[in-house]
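Researcher: Sequence of Proteasome assembly chaperone 3 follows. Predict its structure.
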Amino acid sequence: MSSPEPVVRSRQTERDVNGVSTQVVCTEFSNYIFVVLTQYGKIGTLISVTPDSKSNDISTPTLSTKVLLGKEEPLTHVCAKNLAMFVSQEAGNRPVLLGLALKDSSIDSIKQMKEIIKSCQVW
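Model: Prediction complete. Tokens:
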């Protein structure tokens, strides 16, 4: 007798990014993909990243970001779009709820964090 598939699938991992311990938790819900990326051990700023349905070109979708909780800063939106675009695309253009608490948001760090998220996929 096999056990039923869990209602919510989740994976987590921890790696160093430029010498900073970084934790990632990816959770798939029916209507959202929830990704927490933290270097502080907290959820941090919560951002909703949604594909823009008005975009005519499916190959290069545009994303809308909205800070739900936390600091409203331009860099937050840039990081969120960079980190969540491939998640949304690979999950069938589903919206992404992203928790960010980063000490280091350099371009190199963001690239490494994308790879960590890819290794933690649940979608």
